[in-house]
Design goal:
Blueprint (H helix, E strand, L loop, with lengths): L11 H12 L1 H13 L3 H24 L2 E4 L3 E6 L5 E6 L3 E8 L8 E8 L8 E7 H11 L17 E4 L2 H9 L3 H16 L5 H13 L2 H27 L3 E4 L4 E4 L5 E2 L1
Antiparallel strand pairs: 1-2, 2-3, 4-5, 4-10, 5-6, 7-8, 8-9
Length: 264
């Protein structure tokens, strides 16, 4: 039997707005750089204000039009502002159920529920951006089949194998993760955008200073930058995989990780 249709927590409106800004970030940055280079700051501020209002309206409408129902056999999601979509996902197709508590979820006792299905078609995956943590656990356990017919959770009394990553493991993982390449790429892309709005006098003075340095000094500066970015990559890994624990059950693996963003 399906449960009554439910809506997400109203904080989902904020997450919808963030998602819209993320999707439009490339356009916003490009527009801001081009317009600012011509000295039209007022147009940038006016455009950003208009986008904020538009995205808030779209975020609120998206929240109002989103409902979900859960049963031990499937989850049913209705969503869409202009085009309504009905999505039924059978429990047998679900491969993983992730509960994520970001820094905006935790103060309000909320969590995000991500459902990953078999196959590579991402259109059949589901995301509940903001539900209470207890509701997230209920959805997780129900779709895992850990509820009886009376909708009561079935207690498991088995002792299963657990492995917890210590600080040494996390440091080694962070130091060898290869994230330095991604960070260097992002650093270069960010610098190429910032370069367009750096004052010419400051840019020319910095260039002349660098060219006046000895080759040894330039190598030291480059090494300092690379080491600094490498440490940032390690710190990111520590934050992402902190408190990592994996438990092996009979038919599944259960993983918890994250310091700022708790993933279950």
């Amino acid at each position: 039997m399906m449960s009554n249709p439910k809506r997400l927590n109203p904080l989902a409106i904020l997450f919808n707005v963030f998602k819209l800004f993320k999707q439009a970030s490339y356009f916003i940055i490009t527009f801001a750089v081009v317009v600012l280079s011509d000295g039209y700051l007022n147009y940038v501020l006016l455009g950003l204000l208009g986008l904020v209002v538009l995205f808030i309206v779209l975020g609120a409408l998206s929240w109002l039009r989103f409902t979900y129902e859960v049963s031990p056999e499937q989850i049913h999601i209705k969503h869409g502002i202009f085009i309504r979509k009905d999505r039924y996902i059978s429990r047998n197709r679900i491969q993983s159920i992730d509960l994520t508590q970001g820094i905006f979820h935790r103060p309000f006792g909320l969590t995000k529920v991500d459902l990953e299905t078999a196959g590579s078609d991402k259109n059949v995956d589901a995301n509940l951006s903001a539900v209470t943590y207890d509701e997230g656990l209920r959805i997780q356990e129900m779709l895992k089949g850990n509820f009886d017919e009376g909708n009561n959770q079935v207690e498991e009394t088995h002792d299963y194998f657990k492995r917890t990553a210590n600080q040494k493991d996390l440091w080694i993982a962070g130091a060898t993760s290869g994230s330095i390449g991604v960070i260097l790429g992002l650093f270069g892309a960010a610098f190429s955008q910032i370069e367009n709005i750096i004052p010419d006098t400051f840019y020319d003075a910095t260039t002349r200073w660098l060219l006046a340095q000895a080759i040894e000094s330039l190598i030291v500066i480059a090494l300092v930058i690379v080491i600094f970015l490498w440490l940032i990559g390690i710190l990111g890994s520590l934050i992402k995989y902190g408190d990592f624990q994996i438990t092996r059950y009979e038919h599944e693996l259960f993983i918890t990780r994250g310091l700022l963003e708790k993933n279950r």
